[in-house]
Amino acid sequence: MRRALQVVPALWSVLAALVVSVILLALAGAPPFRALGLVLDGAVGDGGRMADTLMSWVPLTLAAAGLVVTFVAGLWNIGVEGQVIAGAIGATWAARTIPGEGFVVIPAALAAGVAAGALWALAAGVLKTRGGVNEIFGGLGLGFVAQSLATYLIIGPWKRAGIASTSGTEPFREEVWLPTVGGTRLSPVAVILALAAIAVVWALLRGTRFGLRLKAVGANPASARLLGVPTEATILRAFALGGGMAGLAGAVLATGIQHKLVPAIAGGRGFLAILVVLLAAYRIVWVAPIALFFAILSVGSAQLQLRLDLDSSIGGVLQGILVLFVILIGGWQALHRRDAEEP
Amino acid sequence: MLELRGITKRFGPVVANDGIDLDVPPGSLHAVLGENGAGKSTLMKILSGFLPPDAGRIRLDGHEVPTGSPRAALRAGIGMLHQDPLVCLPFTALDNFILGREGKIDRAAARGELREVCARFDFDIDPDARARSLSVGERQQLEIARLLSLGVKVLILDEPTSGISSEQRTKLFSALRTLAGEGLIVLFVSHKLEEVEELCDTVTVIRAGRVVGERALPCPADELVELMFGDLVVSSARPPVEIGAPALRVSGLAAGTGRQAVTGVDLEVRAGEVVGLAGLEGSGQRTLLRVLAGLEPARAGHVEIDGRSLDGSSYEGFVAAGVHYLPAGRLEEGLVPGLTIAEHLTLAARLSDWVVDWDAARSRAEEAIEHFRIKGGPDTPADALSGGNQQRLLLAMMPEDLRVLLMEHPTRGLDIESADYVWTRLLARRDSGTAIVFSSADLDELVGYADRVVVFFSGKVLADLPAAELTADRLGTLIGGKVAS
Lengths: 343, 485
Known about the structure:
The structure holds 2 protein chains of 2 kinds. Chain A is an all-alpha fold. Chain A has one domain (7-341): ABC transporter involved in vitamin B12 uptake, BtuC. Helix content of chain A is 75%, strand content 0%. Chain B is of the alpha/beta class. Chain B has 2 domains: 2-229, Rossmann fold, CATH 3.40.50.300; 246-479, Rossmann fold (3-Layer(aba) Sandwich). Helices cover 34% and strands 25% of the residues of chain B. Chain B has 17 helices and 20 strands. A 6-stranded mixed β-sheet of chain B has the order 6-7-8-3-9-10, sandwiched between helices. In chain B, strands 16-17-18-13-19-20 form a 6-stranded mixed β-sheet, sandwiched between helices. In chain B, strand 9 and strand 10 form a beta hairpin. Chain A binds chain B through residues 2-3, 207-210, 212-213, 215-216, 219-220, 222-229, 341-343, and chain B through 11-12, 51, 295, 315-316, 319, 325, 327, 331-339, 343-344, 346-348, 350-356, 358, 397.
């Protein structure tokens, strides 16, 4: 599954997706090239917009980097959205409970997010290895549980003084917000964390025995077992690591962007991360640029609504088309390879 | 009259069917006989439309039968009962019976029809039972009833007697005789000589994708064996082998379920001894090897390595005791597609280092490549290697000190040079005191390399004989399940 999608089909797909997007924009009554220009301008047109785009890139990249670990191990960790939410809950708990200065509480909140995300993913892992529950279903189920838990906490134990509202918890004290620079919403810490996650996964897959075991378990668990790979432990570690990174994404969302827990804290970023990783064909070096492209589309397409009166969901449509084309062209190639070889 | 002309089918470089011609008149009980991999199943799948042929034509009663579509074959009157009956498990027997019919569904009429067929052949199927709860034999009866109700004129049965009771077998055979008496063509695919002799009037023998002979039955078993396996070279005297203390001892072993089950296996293999497991595929050899490797649990019995009990031990326990297993499916359960030679050797080294020193790993791989004469580099993925080189890589990954080496089909699919090389390596292991147990479908290999041959039939040990006393002819007869010849 690792090499299911190659670079060349990805290029063809981008081209095909652009053509279809232009047609769609034209059908929606917008001048297509001006619209695309507006998206770009909305995402990187000035420093503030670039900051917003980068801050949208960080959680997406963190979740996607974690997903690479699980996907390489052959685990369809679809529950990543739930792991992001769990991470946000963990970070919120720490931010609300732990007293003291920011330099104590912020690392604690980030660590709590990592732990919560890892635990949530481990639950899916144990369900798989011990309960025989496919990680897709276990992950989806746990995702709903995480979502409901967040909503319950917001309108229940963590409700704002006097009013219980789904608009979120009381904002955190400002000391525990991730520090920003230059009067924008950009947090250098968050960006460094995302880059570090990429570096960690890259090094892990390239130079460690654990990375080698992940690949072996992902490509052929039966052979891996015969070769002495502890398959269950490897699977659980992959889940913990992937979930930990998703949890960190949730913690960044809570402490760096929302500054509180809101029900839609993950906002589909986990699912979007799956698309990023599919498009990157599970290769970690491609995750950062593809996630940036997705962040540009997400942030920039807000302009379409403001300037052209198009619904901003057109950004999601463009992302979806792109991924569909990549999968379609990759799948089509695989099908033709197989036809040439097998009955 | 069923006529096949020039049926040819290739899978990559393998020619499974090579210009097969076959004529079967109505009312025939016709056997298609051949060893595993001879091409019987491929031919039957082509005939029943499950596989499109690369070339060739099928005619039934003078009409061309379209190829490559099971639906078209059924319409033309050709139906196949698969080895594992293709029933929908969550459906009831009646729903399965109706499945595949065209037009309006009349359940009451179908129920009556099913009852009628059952009464006629003394089949015992409850129309409302879930297919899941039916035995293999009952599912088979259900499939036969369904195919008959669809009006087939040719009924193909692929190894129908494995996994069914002897009572069901008797009923099946009598039903087939009745049907042939009414003019149906029955094609009976098997590798069991006794059954073919018992049931059929005529037989076509297939070897390596070609028809090698047709006979009217009865016909001497020796003649059929020779047709099935070809001319066998009986090995010359082997050098005497130093045989040591018992390395592996198995007693009263039972394991596996269904077709894969083995029962009552007793076996002793001494250090430096080579034991060959003979038998048609699926007669229990694979299950035995997997139990001995610690990959499958035993239901009963004991396994000892060097006098130490390994009952209930994990795979890791067997590995620690000095057992190594080389499976037949090299890319399925031996190697990891996508990983390179260096990566494989690094995994197989079972070290506990955290960071892999890839420079060292590559130079170790270079050494292994040279030593085992593998055609590839450290960064060549295992799936890009030829079969022979994959087997060499597996040999290169074997640990140094082994007590017991278990192998499935050690040279299957290899050219002669690679096969010789593999055995040179294995015999070197034997000479250093490793006990070797291997299964093979190649009678020459069994007689040529084993000191003893253990013949499996239907999950039981049929014979355990010194290879020196075996002729390949006799081995072939034993494999077909006949003890006395």
